[in-house]
Queue: 4 jobs
Job 1
Amino acid sequence: MAPPKSRPAKKTGKKTAKELRGEHEPQSIIPVDLQQLLLNVFKNSFVERLGADFKPLLQEVKGHLYNRDFLTAFGRNDYLEVYAARWSPSRALGYLDIFASLNDLNLSTPSVNQQEDRREIVCIGGGAGAEIVALGGYLAYLQRTNQMPSPQPQMNIKSIDIADWAIVGDKLHQHLTTAPPISQYASASAKASNVPLLDSDLLNVSFKHADVLNLDASTLRPLFQGVKLVTIMFTLNELYSTSLALTQKFLLNLTECLDEGAQLLVVDSPGSYSTVTLNGAEKKYPMKWLLDHTLLKQGPKGEEPPWTKVIEDESRWFRLQTELNYPIELENMRSQLHLYSRST
């Protein structure tokens, strides 16, 4: 899980540089009230953590991240909750905007070659919960816009992360599928309308504590059996920085584990570069070049590449709307996006 690199959200009402030049970024298609409900999931999940001791703990976490001491930064439950409460909410909204805007992302289409109608999704580096809440929000969005297939399928989300984020995932899943807390003095009508964002039957969440760079193909295979979508959000460049060779090996093993038609969605900081050492000399390569080189390369006998690139966006913004409420300041999200489909 890489530390965030987005700029702070500015709610001053000033125009952005693009607006001043007469350019306009597309507005999110997600209703503001649904975005607020997702922020409430984080607020209710970490209500105690967002209290008086939040800022000192946050500074400790920031210090460990700045020093790239990830084992310490993600080594305590209170640190994990602080990280998730601080950085995952805005990312969850940004990810939801991506899911809803990608018409080529076939999450709402029927599953094939499976005995049960499920959506199997694996989130690499997704322990901090942004992907879980975003996908839960996507189900709610499909319901609101009457795009949910009938019968309604269950979405099974498996997060795989090097740190033990189980406590975070459990809390977020609980608050996605149970009614929000409400005052005992609330009116009868308010209590009657206080319902969960999602039915618990629609969303199943599990967590795997593992370092994907050190899992062999035989261990990876059951984790990705029948998987429809794999996401690697703000994690791939960190994997490349850890070990180019092991990351390439993981992507090749992942390719072997996935069925034809499965999709891989990579989202990361725009302009991400990784340093590669070749013949004793260091050189920086764009993350997207390394990714394409691994996934879109022809076989030794001229075989077609195992992946097809469906969408590429080198820089996109998700900006928080001023109407949104959260106990602490959040950040806008700028990202690059790459969507691949397993072709052979």
Job 2
Amino acid sequence: MTNTIVVVGAGVSGLTSALLLSKSKSNTVTVIAKHMPGDYDIEYASPWAGANFLPMSTREDSRWERRTWPEIKRLAEQVPEAGIHFQTSRIFRREKDMEGPSCPTDPMFDRDPWFQSVLPDYRELNTAEIPNGYETGCEFTSVCINTAMYLQWLVGQCLLNGVVFKRVIITHINDAKSFSHTSKPAPIVINATGLGSLRLAGVQDKSMAPSRGQLVLVRNELHPMFTTSGTEDGITEIFYTMQRPAGGGTILGGTYDVGNWESVPDPNVALRIMRRIVDMCPEIANGKGIDGLDVVRHAVGLRPYRKSGVRVEKEKLEDGTWVVHNYGHAGWGYQGSYGCAEGVVELVNEIRRENGENFHDEPKLS
């Protein structure tokens, strides 16, 4: 029996969900979205991401990231055209930031993090490796993703599996079922609309809010990538850097400003971002300070922050249509993408069994 599915949203969560669903020959998948890979719009978060793998979940809620890492690692090792490469990552901690929550990325800075048994080469740094102003730190092998390449690669993999893409704007989640490329309405809809779930009728999740992220993309190179537990510039400003593969440039960040919808880069924030990086790593600019940074662009993205955490669950609408939700990832959409998509497949299969279908599809990441 053919199972018709419409995925709403073409960010990393929607595309990964579509990819895993399309691995089953019994699923017919259509992706509909207002924005597609190649677009740069403030409503479309995925292209603006760094993106890397720095675990942000608590130990208790770490399934999505734990399940994603093996596949991201495989792609970095075996699929160079996906635009993912390994990078050594360092985390620097300040004792004063450990006294209370500073932003939703806090579990990353735990002194005994759950991910030390997941990410390769984990070790605590010695005193000589800690920059001035920080007390402790750790190092491990992570990845950085060239989002422009990777989103297009996901589209290509979906197309190979027969997924059809349509540019569509919907105002109610129930409208999605009628946009299947088949001749019949889809009984299952995947809601991967990210921040759009705040206003999309039929969902209207009031726990959603933007988490504004401002960054600077430069041509300068810097290794390894790093992030810190806090800055002297206020709770909304964070300090990190990573180098994208395949000439994607180096990301300098940033901000984590929940509730801020402003889409235009703030020049004062940009100046602070650049000052922080050249103060800690003058070699990035050959000792020339900010003037030594070769800026590609200043950018702002709105992370889909959800106060109550990511939503991966099923819901039955009044007309009998099933919706499987996959949104609210805040700043960890890429590093939770395969785990959450695996959860989507499991929920779709639960629905099919409840409908009396006899099959043995299971999510397969590779």
Job 3
Amino acid sequence: MSQVSSSLQRRCNCGMIANQFTSTTPSNPERKFFKCPKPKRSSCGYWQWEDEEYSESFVGGLVSSLDAFKNEITYLKNEKATLKEEIVALQGVNQAEMNKVLKMRVFMMISWVLFIGFVVASIMQ
């Protein structure tokens, strides 16, 4: 068995670095595979082709993560819709408040004009 670079090393279910072998069978000639380094009786049973990049458990974990992300996206979309509704409601409240402020300004300006008019009229008499 040749020495394997650390990037190609895989760990078996025991946590040990799996041994790499080359198949000599007619159905898989020269195909490389990994297996647990322990003897058959104490082995964890780990075995995987080198060209199979990811184990089923790894892919299953990715699928579970993808489902969790999909659920999170759905939740965030709902939150976004709720926030948009709240913004629209607040904009309506804000517009009503702005209208009140505008009316008060007009009222204050008319009041000041009338007050100044009375003061000027009383001075003129």
Job 4
Amino acid sequence: MAFPDAQQLTDLLQPRLAARGLDVEDIKTTKAGKKSQVIIRIDGDKRPSSDVLEEVSDDISAFFDEKEETGELNFGAGYTLEVSTPGVDLPLTSPRHWRRNQGRKVTFNRGDDKSHTARIGALNAAEDAVVLITSEKNEVHTEVERLENIAHAVVEIEFAQPSQRELDAVHQPFAEAES
């Protein structure tokens, strides 16, 4: 059996993690001599604590060992496993990323190579459109954007607190922002 790729491992792990309310966000594998490396980024609507990450890591390790014993997986001579949450550099590629980052500032483009910055508001029920909040001086503006129109987006690291008006807009239901 060949060294497993990221998609194969995602397909194996996603059902196990879904039972815990978690998603596989990213897997990187590196085949390297005696010690290969498997890095798994997981997340959930409730961000996993370090205790949960440790439990999941132990579970995945035992699962991989079992799969190697049956010949379903082959990591070579051995592997190092790292399980953690994604950093802020993970692109927002699915509706759950937008939902989980509501209230945070995001830099995005609409495929026009122009960079825009806004705060993430509510998603609609279909999870195909999001409220984007910008502020200029003391005015807060909201706009609705379809997720399919956003080509690339990443969360920005902020050091300043947002204004109360921005925070109020963040918590406004989608239907109110749309009107």
